[in-house]
Amino acid sequence: LADHHLPTLTRSCRADEDGLQILLTSNHVPEVLQVLDAAGYLYETQPVILVGPTPYRPGLIARWLTGLRQQGVDVQFSYLSSVTSDLCFLVVGTANHEQVLEAAAAA
Question: Is-contact 91 76, C-beta < 8 A?
């Protein structure tokens, strides 16, 4: 993606029984998908909530995510992606986008 001058806002990876997955967020989705397709990668897209950049405070974010769960918000996944040593983005995958946005605004 860097060779094509396509920035990603966040990057993370995870491994499970299906293999290695790379999680990316970008505001250039069609262009990123073209590059991935041309390179032969399998991919899925999903809208996410991107919060930040925000101060890197994992304990605070964990409490906030716990609060979402207590409100009945189904958080399918979340991760922090560092911007600098003291700033990060929080990525939240959920079907309840409106509830997460309301909670983020209230925090």
Answer: no
Contacts of 67 (CB under 8 A, 6+ apart): 103
End-to-end CA distance of the chain: 34
DSSP bridge pairs for 70: none
For the segment 55-90, what is each residue's pLDDT rounded down to a tens digit? 888 788 888 888 888 888 888 888 888 878 889 888
pTM: 0.76
Beta bridge mates, 20: 15
Neighbours of 92 (CB within 10 A): 24
| Contact between 48 and 79 (Cβ < 8 Å) | no
Contact, 54 vs 90, CB < 8 A? Answer: yes
Q: What is the pLDDT of residue 32?
A: 94
Q: Which residues contact 86 (CB under 8 A, 6 or more apart)?
A: 55, 56
